[in-house]
Amino acid sequence: RHAFAKNGGNIGADGSVAFQFRHCGQFVFAPGASEEKLMEAALDAGAEDVVTNTDGSIEVISTPAEFDKVKAALEKASPRPDAAEVTMKALNETALAGAEAERMRALLEALDELDDVQNVYTTAVLE
C-alpha cells in the first residue's frame, strides 16, 4: 500500500484489471530471425499467432498449455528466443512520456523491490 500511495498509484480490488491482460505463452526473437521458419514451426506446434513488430523483432504467442510444445519446436527450428515465458500480456498498451513515464517508472521499481511481489504487469509503454 505504501508503494502505491508514495508513487501516486491506486489499489483496486482483486482482479479489477485482469480483463486488460491475456494469460499466454510469449516468445520474442531479435530482429533478423527468419519469420518464415518461425511461423511454420510455431503454427505446426500449436501456437496461436506470430507477429512481426515494427522494430523487426518477432513475437510468437501460444496458450499456456501449449507453451512447452511450442518452445521445443521453436528451439529445433531457430536460434533461442531472447525471451520465453508464460506471462500476462497487455491487450492494449498506453504510451507514457515525460513526468507521467517517470512516475510510472518509480512505481514499477518500488513494486519490484518489495519482497512479497513476484511479478508486475503493466499496460504502460514508457518512452
Put the structure in a nutshell.
This protein is α+β, with helices and mostly antiparallel strands and 127 residues long. It is 34% helix and 25% strand.
Protein architecture, described:
The protein has helices at residues 2-6, 35-45, 67-77, 98-113, and strands spanning 21-29, 49-52, 58-62, 83-90, 94-96, 124-126. By secondary structure, the chain is α+β, with helices and mostly antiparallel strands. The protein has a 4-stranded antiparallel beta sheet, with helices on one face. α2 (35-45) runs antiparallel to α3 (67-77). The protein is elongated and about 45 Å long. The mean pLDDT is 90.
For the sheet with most strands, the description reads: 4 strands, antiparallel
- In total, how many beta strands? 6
Query: What fraction, in percent, of the residue positions are helical?
Result: 25-40%
Give Rg in angstroms. 17 Å
The total count of helices amounts to: 4
In terms of DSSP E residues, the strand content is 25-35%
Give the end-to-end Cα distance, rounded to a whole number of Å. Answer: 26 Å
Q: Reading side by side through the largest sheet, how are the strands ordered?
A: 2-3-1-4
Q: Spans of 5+ residues with little confidence (pLDDT < 50)?
A: none
Order of helices and strands: HEHEEHEEHE
The class by helix and strand makeup works out as: alpha+beta
Average pLDDT across residues?
Answer: 90
